[in-house]
Amino acid sequence: MGWLKWLRNEFLFDNEASNLATREKNTYDLDMKQAMDAHRAWVDCLRDLVYRQIDRVSNLSHESEAPPFLLRQWLYGPARKRYSGLLEYWVLNNAHEKFHACSDTILHCYRSGFKNHALRLMEDELMAHSEGFQVGVVRLYAAAAAQR
Q1: Residue 82 pLDDT > 80, yes or no?
Q2: Under 8 Å between Cβ of 106 and 121
Q3: How many Cβ atoms are within 10 Å of 133's Cβ, its own excluded?
Q4: Is the pLDDT reported for residue 69 higher than 80?
Q5: How many domains would you assign to the chain?
Q6: Is 20 inside a domain boundary?
Q7: What is the pLDDT of residues 23-51, one digit of tens each?
Q8: What is the pLDDT of residue 126?
Q9: What are 105-138's pLDDT values in tens digits?
Q10: Long-range contacts (CB closer than 8 Å, 24 or more residues apart) made by 56-60
Q11: What percent of the chain has pLDDT over 70?
Q12: Is residue 94, in this structure, part of any structural domain at all?
């Protein structure tokens, strides 16, 4: 996971690199840092639930402008319009689906009283899916930058 730390330091916070669509940017578009931050917001909600028994997930509406749902709206809206011609978009979309299938299972297990199973899923599967999603975001933006 050291390369992800390097990436965050070297690439993610570079405004030039993360803001690829300045000419066509609209209020619903996300740069790479915003996409990663929105993803981390959802992971943090799940961590709070599983590790600290603080349920912030129940307070989120699926149609809200909360960061996790802003990412979903971006992925299926502006990102699809702009990047659907790239294989990297579809790989990211698949990684997003796998991540949320796992997070839904964690929520179901936790709320059904299988807290130990939710914890194991969180530690084993969700972190792998999370890393896959983050790599997908980076690859999408790199491919988009290469096309410019």
Answers
A1: yes
A2: yes
A3: 24
A4: no
A5: 1
A6: no
A7: 344 434 677 788 888 888 889 989 998 99
A8: 95
A9: 999 999 999 999 999 999 999 999 999 999 999 9
A10: 57/107
A11: 72
A12: yes
pTM listed for this prediction: 0.74
Residue 40 lies in a domain: yes
Residues 6+ positions from 145 with CB-CB distance below 8 Å: 17, 20
State the Cα–Cα distance between residues 36 and 140, nearest whole angstrom: 12
Is residue 74 domain-resident? yes
Residue type, 26: N
Q: How far apart are CA 36 and CA 57, in angstroms?
A: 18
The range of the structural domain enclosing residue 129 comes to 30-147
- Distance, in Å, from the CA atom of 110 to the CA atom of 23, rounded to the nearest integer, reads 44
Tokens for 124, please give them: 């084993």
**SS3 of the chain:** CHHHHHHHHHHHCCHHHHCCCCCCCCCCCCCHHHHHHHHHHHHHHHHHHHHHCCCCCCCCCCCCCCHHHHHHHHHHCHHHHHHCCCHHHHHHHHHHHHHHHHHHHHHHHHHCCCHHHHHHHHHHHHHHHHHHHHHHHHHHHHHHHHHC
